[in-house]
Amino acid sequence: xxxxxxxxxxxxxxxxxxxxxxxxxxxxxxxxxxxxxxxxxxxxxxxxxxxxxxxxxxxxxxxxxxxxxxxxxxxxxxxxxxxxxxxxxxxxxxxxxxxxxxxxxxxxxxxxxxxxxxxxxxxxxxxxxxxxxxxxxxxxxxxxxxxxxxxxxxxxxxxxxxxxxxxxxxxxxxxxxxxxxxxxxxxxxxxxxxxxxxxxxxxxxxxxxxxxxxxxxxxxxxxxxxxxxxxxxxxxxxxxxxxxxxxxxxxxxxxxxxxxxxxxxxxxxxxxxxxxxxxxxxxxxxxxxxxxxxxxxxxxxxxxxxxxxxxxxxxxxxxxxxxxxxxxxxxxxxxxxxxxxxxx
Length: 344
Hints:
This protein is of the alpha/beta class. 39% of the residues lie in helices and 16% in strands.
């Protein structure tokens, strides 16, 4: 049940100290009730009040930290309702089925896509490492992926022993362990919680996924990502939408986690189809979008779309004012003048 601002205000310190960034305690409490600020931003809120209000005022979708990025924390289905909070991430794939030359070429491709647009760094944020059956090669591949600076590794294996070895090998990277299902979730949960990393959960259908997540929550793990990839594009799209709708609209917090969509499985190396579907899941709830590979041809349109969707409509994107020399410009070179603008 939603908590009203006045209910929160009754538990507030009523100091009007402004240290939280709001002019009054009432204004702060209204923001907390709307989900736009966390109750812990108040430095004087009692521990009892925080414990009482944290769960009730938390967004229906949990916020999960992945490397330097945050996923989830959304409170609406559509941006125009309010705003979308944390933008989705992209991953390129490495697989034990690849030969060494292809692996090295893929790694170089991942490093190459790294540029700045409108003040934001755009790159391939994650490396999805898939286990096709060779455990020793898989662990070595995870090490190579972890060596790529600034990228989070997604360990994709359902074999418990392989998962344990891979996590141990790259635990400092804080990878995502994607491989829990109804048969192995207890063992996978033990590995993930011991390493303090995010656990990816998959189910044959949404009912099985829901039951597995509920069991993991009962075991005390709420640091999860839901792999909603199914056998077909249609089923995967339906899963992504229904999981988000169930959490946001129906208030079922069991499905209140970020979603992972693996397009490499769905598209069978069809690059054009993969890029088209990636644009769909940027809009429709793919928190992590896994592609076979990502080059500039894929990144430029997809990352531009992502920036346009995951920006606060009340705060248009803008470039910091200043002088920007291009290609080693000198005082004798021509000068171009431009301004930020917004349609009203």
